[in-house]
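#structure-requests
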Amino acid sequence: MIRSELIQKIADENPHLYQRDVERIVTTIFDQITDALVRGERVELRGFGAFSVKKRDGRIGRNPRTGEAVEVSEKHVPFFKTGKLLRDRLNGA
């Protein structure tokens, strides 16, 4: 599902809301999650999962085309861990 499909589904299930309002709500939620991750905070949505940021140390990698050694700098990457309820629903429990 892509963002526009999510907005359309929420709008369809809530006919009392205008689609532009639903779009603003979804955008605000995603922006708040993103801003929290940028600040290094953890975002937990009970029953769904938790977003956090993990640090990857710098390392020496290889260019797959030439085999040449390349320095890869350290970076921060988003990480998502599913909640128990979501895992149970996916596994049919």
